[in-house]
Design goal:
Largest sheet: none
Strand content: under 5%
Helix content: over 70%
Number of helices: 6
Radius of gyration: 18 Å
Structural class: mainly alpha
Length: 187
């Protein structure tokens, strides 16, 4: 029972921190100014991630669009979470498989975050939302929805690009899950 509680807390903390680091890196990648419209939220993200991102920027300098320090931070937290899970479950850990597994888990976290973001965007489009939040969600989802909208434009005023994007994300998630199983069987 205590192991289950510890695993729950560990997985929750890992997901929270990985999500923050990925979000920070993604916002910079799409050139979204977090402080524009969501000032308090941007302070929240920066204050909770600066402890890792700022020191890592000495090793991985930020470019105009890519903040490697944010993504490396996300990877390191994911890797540490996997090592701690292994220790809790088995009493030991294997370093090499954990390195690869952390990449798959990181990709899976990114896909889950994007799926949640698309669902929130769809729900917010049906209700009258705060214009700042709607603008923010639109900017976050545009890189994924605009290529789909070019191929499948709205049909009779109905935009099905979100449904197509969600379906594609599920397909990628299935592929990742199978690759993850394959990686684990190599060990």
């Amino acid at each position: 029972m205590l192991t289950q509680i510890a695993l729950l807390l560990l997985k929750t903390a890992t997901s929270f921190w990985v999500g923050l680091f990925l979000f920070r890196g993604y916002c910079l990648f799409i050139k979204l100014n977090l402080s524009q419209g969501l000032g308090q939220f941007s302070l929240f993200v920066y204050r909770l991630t600066d402890w890792s991102v700022l020191p890592l920027r000495r090793l991985f300098p930020k470019t105009s669009r890519f903040d490697a320090a944010s993504f490396v931070s996300a990877y390191l937290v994911q890797f540490a979470g996997i090592l701690l899970q292994s220790l809790l479950l088995a009493g030991y850990f294997s370093l090499m498989p954990s390195l690869g597994l952390a990449l798959f888990e990181l990709a899976s976290s990114a896909l889950s975050g994007l799926t949640g973001l698309l669902i929130i965007f769809a729900l917010m489009s049906w209700v009258s939302a705060n214009p700042d939040i709607q603008y923010f969600l639109d900017k976050l989802t545009q890189p994924f929805l605009s290529p789909i909208r070019k191929i499948v434009p709205p049909i009779a005023g109905v935009d099905i690009s979100i449904l197509i994007a969600l379906l594609l994300l599920q397909v990628v998630n299935i592929v990742l899950a199978n690759l993850r199983v394959w990686l684990l069987t190599l060990h």
